[in-house]
């Protein structure tokens, strides 16, 4: 299998965590932002990564979108399962997955790039890095007003996810799509001191889930 990705994308981290959890062997191809559209559009009709290419007869040519990748991987190899046996719990896990994917992953992106362009500039103050950050900010419409809204959404997310303080999994009694999605999509916050200091439990869970899935820890959490 081949995963088309941007190396720094938290949505691609989400796909890698699922692949790692299932111990599926795969390669990655890092696409160049901007030029990625030329490759993806004809392949998937979309412009976003991650995209998984199963590269096997009888399998789809390309699976686009991290949620579809979860569903595809579950049919490709059911063990260990990403889904919970109880249907009510699994419905709740998909609900969390969708909310994290559509709302919180975007909020993380806004707060993260805003930080990297301001207080966190010293993480990489090179011209090329700041250029990329500014292109991303323009591409996604990251302004001080939209960052404020995103930060409020993250505050709500921390309340919703605070059950992680006392229990290892967000839903049920084993790892699910909800845990993997939260661990990936909130991981960029590890570089922001406010989140590290205010929500230490979040980063403990993120580390544990990366270890379970055999995925390299995100920047800020490496040992
Ligand atoms: N819902 C999508 C979101 C993926 C997404 O937003 N990917 C971003 C990178 S983090 C992307 O490909 N951006 C490039 C573009 O939109 O052209 C998924 O889960 O796969």
UniProtKB/TrEMBL annotation:
<dbReference type="InterPro" id="IPR004046">
    <property type="entry name" value="GST_C"/>
</dbReference>
<dbReference type="InterPro" id="IPR004045">
    <property type="entry name" value="Glutathione_S-Trfase_N"/>
</dbReference>
<dbReference type="Pfam" id="PF13417">
    <property type="entry name" value="GST_N_3"/>
</dbReference>
<dbReference type="InterPro" id="IPR036282">
    <property type="entry name" value="Glutathione-S-Trfase_C_sf"/>
</dbReference>
<feature type="domain" description="GST N-terminal">
    <location>
        <begin position="3"/>
        <end position="80"/>
    </location>
</feature>
<dbReference type="Pfam" id="PF00043">
    <property type="entry name" value="GST_C"/>
</dbReference>
<dbReference type="InterPro" id="IPR036249">
    <property type="entry name" value="Thioredoxin-like_sf"/>
</dbReference>
<protein>
    <recommendedName>
        <fullName>Glutathione S-transferase</fullName>
    </recommendedName>
</protein>
<feature type="domain" description="Glutathione S-transferase C-terminal">
    <location>
        <begin position="152"/>
        <end position="186"/>
    </location>
</feature>
